[in-house]
Amino acid sequence: MKIIAPRIPETLVPADRRQLEDMFAEEMDLCRLQLEKADLQNILLPDAAFSQCVFTGCRLAGAQLPKAEFVDVTFKNCDFSGCQLSGAYFSRCTFTDCKAVGVQLQDATFKQTAMFRCNLELADLDQALLAGVALTDCRLSKAWITQCRHRGLELTRCDLTQASLHHTPLKGLDFTSCQLDQVSLSAEDLNGSIMNIYQAAQFARLLGIQVRSE
Question: Does some domain include residue 7?
Fold first, then answer.
């Protein structure tokens, strides 16, 4: 699946935490910024709107960014662990080698977004919207991917061990390259999903099927 890449201008303005907080307080546009190895832990920026920005090696653990908006933004080697991003909006964004253990993404919206080699263990994506989203080599173990809506969601070599997928319709999703050990879901959620023979056997009992070896 082709994801539209972020539209990043050639020239960006370097910024740090203090400058970011000052711009937010003065209601200035958070646009065309380059943040490199910035310590943004526990920063408070509710409803902030970022556009055409690059975050590299930034620490956002515990940051409070509810209902923030990110359009044409790239994140590389950033730490979002425990970050509050409920209700956030992401469009044409990329995440590469990011850590987001326990990130709060309830009711978040992702459009035309790609994630590569990201750790989203224990992430909460309850009621998120995923439209045109591709996750590759990502860890989603023990994550809550519940009551989600999706259109054009692609999962490649992702680890969903012990993840909860309850009330997320899985029709059309291809899990053949993913790990699904001890995933929690309901039989009706499985309808129309694509799995390999070993995965299908794992979930057969949910459908009332008894599998016997010869």
Answer: no
